[in-house]
């Protein structure tokens, strides 16, 4: 659980790949990798390695944000205009009832 004002260090995919390569191919220890690549969390490389063994190369993809959002600018504008038309139609109905 994060504390108020706490920031998290995000590492680029290239650094994660290099850390995994150093451990898998070169046989470096986790401690040596964290010192060499200046990774602050001593268990981070171990977590990346475990994730890599389970998911492969896909484990490094950054999944932050909303990947399901595929709405284009035109679709957004169209939705906004339809909403505006609906509001104007309702306003016209209200005016017609009063008059």
From TrEMBL:
Gene3D superfamilies: Winged helix-like DNA-binding domain superfamily/Winged helix DNA-binding domain. SUPFAM superfamilies: Homeodomain-like (SSF46689). Residues 16-67 form the Insertion element IS150 protein InsJ-like helix-turn-helix domain. InterPro entries: Homeodomain-like_sf, InsJ-like_HTH, WH-like_DNA-bd_sf. It comes from the Bacteria. This is Helix-turn-helix domain-containing protein.
């Amino acid at each position: 659980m994060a504390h108020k004002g706490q920031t998290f260090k995000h590492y680029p995919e290239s650094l994660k790949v290099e850390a995994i390569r150093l451990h898998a191919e070169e046989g470096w220890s986790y401690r040596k990798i964290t010192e060499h690549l200046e990774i602050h969390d001593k268990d981070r490389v171990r977590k990346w390695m475990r994730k890599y063994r389970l998911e492969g190369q896909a484990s490094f993809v950054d999944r932050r944000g909303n990947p399901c959002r595929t709405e284009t600018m035109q679709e957004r504008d169209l939705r906004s205009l339809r909403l505006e038309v609906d509001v104007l139609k309702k306003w016209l109905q209200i005016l017609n009832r009063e008059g």
